[in-house]
Give the backbone structure.
Amino acid sequence: MVGDSLGPGVERSVERTLGHLRALDTASAEAADRPLTLEDLYRQQRMRMVRLAILLVDEPATAEDVVQEAFTGLYRNWSGLRDARAAIGYLRTAVVNGSRSVLRRRKTAREYQPPHQADARSAESLAMLTAEHQAVVAALGQLPPRQREVLVLRYYGDLSEAEIAEATGVSKGTVKSTASRALDALQRIMSAQ
């Protein structure tokens, strides 16, 4: 299991915080008994994908752009999907890949410009979180991108190691070791605060 070598406190905090956000999304999702259309997917999954992207890129406007691009790609490839329900996995992978691209571009831009302070989170997003949850989300923002991806997909996306491996394009073992290192780093960050 992820985080076996850690004290249970950090993992519980991450799980509680991202689980809280996941519960908000799950409560607002509609159950569809009929075949999904692209419009259904947009209505049901857009905000969940935006929240996923925000947790990965830490900037709401950029997250919206990443999700819009993911839906645009899905629209272009809609006829090639084997099953409309596979579209959620396609979207998740597209959001993760789009977020990676954003972070790569940011890194390149920072090499040519002086570093700038990250924008503060919106009042709405902060109001939804307790002080502990805010500390966890702030600490997540200090992790390297791959570590943040794995934790967000695990605890917010509620994905298994195999699903995370598929979404991120790495092996299951890499997911497991990355999650363990991420939780260790998160513990160090949070204990330093």
